[in-house]
Every structure is written in structure tokens, then in C-alpha cells.
Design brief:
- β1 and β2 form a beta hairpin.
- This protein is 0% helix and 14% strand.
- A two-stranded antiparallel sheet has the order 1-2.
- The chain has 44 residues and is an all-beta fold.
């Protein structure tokens, strides 16, 4: 695992997330599209 910070123009790592319906969402399938990812910590 790399410990260096990403820079502008770097490709994002391959990630698979699960949406609210339980459907996998793969970043690789979005290549060529603009993607905005917002990560936040949700505390109950």
C-alpha cells in the first residue's frame, strides 16, 4: 500500500462500494464520466 498523497491527474484506486439498496457500485465502471465522491463519518 502506498503512503504517498495523490496529486492532480492521478487515477483513483479501484474501489467497490455498496449503495443504499445493497447494489455494488464500481468506480471503474464510471471511467470517462465525472464522479464526485463525498466521504463523511456518520455517528449515531
Amino acid at each position: 500500500m502506498s503512503t504517498s498523497s495523490p496529486t492532480v491527474g492521478d487515477l483513483a484506486p479501484e474501489v467497490t462500494l455498496v449503495d443504499r439498496d445493497g447494489t455494488p457500485w464500481r468506480l471503474a465502471e464510471q471511467r470517462g464520466h465525472t464522479v464526485v465522491a463525498i466521504f463523511h463519518r456518520h455517528i449515531h
